[in-house]
Amino acid sequence: MNLISFNPVENQNSCLESDILSVFKPDQEKKGEIQEGMSPKEIAEIVSDHLITIVRNQFEIAKREFQAKSND
């Protein structure tokens, strides 16, 4: 059984090995969809990116509404 800790110091040793040449790739290959056989890290990155996009859009909407109210 694997234990998961939310303490980032304890999770530093649990990184997955990646392709050393990926540093030199101009575009990071990111998949936008969760597919069968993906690692938990890949799934977490997709979910995180999606949530960040949603929150960023909400902030932009709130910013526009605030600016519209302050202009009145």
Structure summarized in a few sentences:
With 72 residues, the protein is mostly helical. It contains one helix and no strands.
Helices and strands in order, then pairings?
Blueprint: H1 40-71
Average pLDDT: 78
Q: What is the gyration radius calculated from CA atoms?
A: 18 Å
Number of helices: 1
SSE pattern: H
Measured between the Cα atoms of the first and last residue, the distance is: 59 Å
Q: Describe the biggest sheet?
A: none
Structural class determined from secondary elements: mainly alpha
Shape: elongated
Q: Low-confidence parts lasting 5 or more residues at pLDDT below 50?
A: none
Q: Roughly what fraction of the amino acids lie in strands?
A: under 5%
Oligomeric composition of the shown chains: single chain
Features:
72 residues, mainly alpha, 44% helix, elongated
Describe this structure in words.
The mean pLDDT is 78. It is built from 1 helix and no strands. The chain has one helix at 40-71. By secondary structure, the chain is mainly α. 44% of the residues lie in helices and 0% in strands. The protein has a domain at 37-72. The protein starts with 39 loop residues before the first helix and ends with a helix.
